[in-house]
Amino acid sequence: MKISDKEGDGVRNDRNDKALLIFFAAGLLLCFTLAVFFPAPRFSERENRNLTEKPRFSLPALTNGTWETETDTYLTERFCLRTGCRALRAVTELTEGKREVSGIILGSDGSLLRRGNASPRTLAANLSGVRRLSESAEERGVPFTVAAVPRAVDVRADVLPALYLPETGLYQTLSETLPGALSLTELNGSGDFYATDHHLTTAGAFRAYLALCPSLEITPYTYEDFEVTCVSTAFAGTSDAAAGIPGVRPDKIELYRFAGDTDFTVIRDGTPAAFAGFYDTEKLTRRDQYTVFLGGNAGVTEVRQGEGDARPVLLLYRDSYGNALIPFLARHFRILAVDPRYTSAPLSSFLDGADLTLVFCGMQSLSETAMFR
Predict the structure, then answer these.
(1) Pick from 6, 180, 198, 265: most CB atoms within 10 A?
(2) How far out from the chain centre does Cα 61 lie?
(3) Cα distance between residue 230 and residue 200, in whole Å
(4) Is residue 356 helix, strand or coil?
């Protein structure tokens, strides 16, 4: 029997549909097999974070849907070709004309600016905690200064897309809750922030130091008092890790050195650091090179100049933005730096023995992370 052209087309379409279904089913099975038996490493060097662990199966987790959700996240994050897929996605979105990838805005100068996920409630809670600390300091007669480092995305309008509206409400809340607090919005140049990271460059930290000196009643050292040394030209920071855009030009890291800076001792959570002075140069061999400053984050960091340092004690409540600032302040004070994210001790307990207090945090931390309680 002769099959009509119409019937023949139907048979071919049916075969094509079946072949397509088999192809996709095989692809899904391959992806599942790779993720289960050949997962990507737990720690992602590219993203500088731990990826999701394989979820444990349980009947309650299955019935309430959490096992399915966690499994989906695991398969997505631990897929062995994850890095390449992230790069392909980033290139595709940029090719489509987008200026943002995974919450990272590509500036006109090539810099990567994190949009952030600010929470007015978190900011209000943190500022209320800072206000309580200031009241406790006032009761003890300890001078109290507050300074917030702005988010680059809020102050670098020169490189942002034309219709992007910077966030101003965060800084208004800061000034209304803590009158006299410094927002440091003058840190808005290309040299103040790393192009691939949310932190201040050493030059930006130096500018912040100069802005703080009047409030701390100290005479600042000048730029000529330091020797600027470049220790890395391959720093790719947190914004680069989040975006996954291939071919981004890395940053350089500079240190502002001065005679005798290796005589300072850094004590991290009660343990003297293995490096002399402020800089752990061994960290320059790792992905997160910003940890060259003081060796990275710690709950309580003490900085002393030699034995028997009897200089005034500056109590510094800070996040990671303070790491690059401390070498400048340590030329004037003995430092007791507290990162509220990494200590469970009552924050007001550190006020005893302090001669003056400074809160120095990024607006990103203040508006996204519960720090001051």
Answers:
(1) 198
(2) 32
(3) 15
(4) strand
